[in-house]
Amino acid sequence: MDQIKTLRCASDKSISHRSAIFSSIASGKTTIKNYLFAQDTLNTLEAFKKLGVDIDIDKTKVTIKGTGKYLKESFDIINLGNSGTGIRLISAVCAGQSFLSILTGDNSLRNRPMKRIIEPLTQMGATILSRKNFLAPLAIFGKDKLKGINYASKIASAQVKSAVLIAGLYTDENVEFSEPQVSRNHTEIMLKQFGVDIISENNKVFLGKHRKLTGGFELNVPADISSCAFFMVMCALKPNCEAVFADCLINPTRTGILKVFSDMGVNYEIINKKTMCGEEVADILVKYSPNLKPFYIDGKILPTLIDEIPILSILALFANGKSILKDAKELRVKESDRIKSIVENLKKLGVKVEEFEDGFEIEPTKNIQKAYIETYFDHRITMSFSVLKALGYNLELSETKSPTTSYPNFFEHLKYLGS
Ligand SMILES: O=C(O)C1=C[C@@H](OP(=O)(O)O)[C@@H](O)[C@H](O)C1
Ligand SMILES: C=C(OP(=O)(O)O)C(=O)O
User: Fold this and answer.
1) pTM exceeding 0.80
2) DSSP string across 285-318
3) So where does 3-phosphoshikimate get bound (predicted)?
4) ipTM score of the complex?
């Protein structure tokens, strides 16, 4: 048996975005330790610098002198790169400012749906112009006082929920949001830390009376379970592998993958629970797991593992039966159409896979063929197939730059765990 390795994977992307946004619109100087220095979350810091916030970045921490909720007009267009979270949450901040903001992103982001936030933010009183079909760039004419809203979202989306709650900080009227399943709740947890009254009841959230953010403390961002997932799967598939994933976020709105691991027979153990950033965190030990059952994933669990589907589709190749994914249409509007990206690439490996509008069925295979993988510049597709390649399969990837979006030292960690 090899020595047990410890890996502190990339910091949580969702929590990093929120820490930057809320520290910027709070009073006081807030320090963020273990901020994720990846392209998406660096773009969020750049956005707030453009909006007049004093932000200091050094190797270990970010210090943000909050301005309170009213910012300065940006001289320039704000570019959120590849980040759906960045553009959708910052649009909501801009909806509460009495000046014009223009938000854009890269080719992928300019093709992702923005109607989902344009609709509620417009109902709350902002004026938002977009390209045809509600696509970015977005021109946002905000108002310093918005209207209340009772918004029933048709999709479970933390980005939509967060947009409504953030815009809700700019009104004294009632703000209520509901969604079909509970999406990740980092906005609710962090707004509470900044002193905002917020009440969650099952799949509903309400803002209370107190909506002013008070910063001036230190936040410490845990490791991202969505980033750990790549190496947890690698460890499950690599003979003699045993690794501890340190400080991994285990917020129940994010741990669907652990439930799927249990169902499939992945050998893991939660060994050391703690709290960071108001969030549940733990060290997780994962071991080689040779007898895997297939997965069945549908709408109930999906929001809690939405970003882990690409790497779970790799795990499915080694199960002892057909894995099924349903109700996952949202995957078609991520950084790439992830259903298509997964299915097309698995077919190239010689895997029997059937594509549905909202998911797929994957047959395991003992004979993975040599293939050229088109990543569509989607970080999670690149990282998933890089794990498969590191397990000894003959793959060539169309690019290996995209992981900088969420996990800049991904390949270093891959080498460490693979060695
Ligand atoms: O709020 C967030 O930080 C995120 C929410 C999810 O998107 P949706 O809100 O579109 O489901 C997720 O896929 C994304 O990676 C991060
Ligand atoms: C979907 C993702 O992020 P975003 O929506 O913020 O671009 C992701 O990281 O997988």
Assistant:
1) yes
2) EEE----BPPPEE-TTTGGGTGGGHHHHHHHHTT
3) 13-14, 18, 157, 159, 307, 334
4) 0.99
